[in-house]
Amino acid sequence: MRKFNLLSLFVLAITFLAVSCTKEGPEGPAGATGSQGPTGAAGTNGTNGATGATGPQGPVGPVGPAGPQGAAGTANVIYSAWIADPNNYIDSSITLLGTVRRVIIPAPSLSTAILNSGVVLMYLRGGVTNALPVQMPYQFFFSGSGTLSIGFLPATSKIVVYVANLTNGSHAGGPGWGGDFRYVLIPGGVAGGRTTEKAAEIKGQVYTESQLKSMSYAEVCSLLNIQP
Predict the structure, then answer these.
(1) Rounded distance between C-alpha atoms, residue 215 and residue 151, angstroms
(2) The pTM is what?
(3) Would you give the DSSP letter of residue 129?
(4) Rounded to the nearest 10 degrees, how much is the dihedral formed by the CA atoms of 184, 190, 193, 198?
(5) Distance between CA atoms of 218 and 184, rounded to whole angstroms?
(6) 49 contact partners, CB below 8 Å, separation of at least 6
(7) pLDDT tens digits, one per residue of 195-217
(8) Beta strands in the chain (DSSP E)
């Protein structure tokens, strides 16, 4: 009987130990967060992909409306280079001027139409003008003779240049004036009735003969795009 009790106690002790070993305890508290580790090295770039095919061209858009017409230009203006004085003057008589010395400057583009409705400008430069271009007719005092005038008379395909004495009405037998001449031919382009004076439309604006002749040489060159 005693032997049985010892055996029972031994089995009971083994069972108690087994139960004690298999029982799970309560979860412990969370640990502190650890420090961040170093950043890893960047990876290599991948290879570029192949370029895709070009897409089809889109449809052409509608044509826009036409813009307004630009201002009239100066394409029809004709001007000469500087022409040296031919110096082959002869005596001649001109109404209201008396005896003068005259010479002919060829102007092949000076048409009847320009004479009738356009504007003809003439310039000279030389010793009496201090080499500056001035518009003709040009007056100056000449010692021993009085006041002289260098003027011009346009005609078809030519321009007559003359030297007249405004003091006594006679300028004969003297030498040529010398210097250079230049002419500018501006065709008329103004519809009838817009002005009673000969005029031309330049860059969209009407200029009368009087207005053009009142301009300086530099102003005319700028207006008409003429190389001085």
Answers:
(1) 17
(2) 0.65
(3) G
(4) 0
(5) 13
(6) none
(7) 578 999 998 899 999 999 999 99
(8) 78-79, 83-84, 90-94, 98-106, 119-125, 134-135, 138-142, 146-155, 158-165, 180-186, 199-202, 205-208
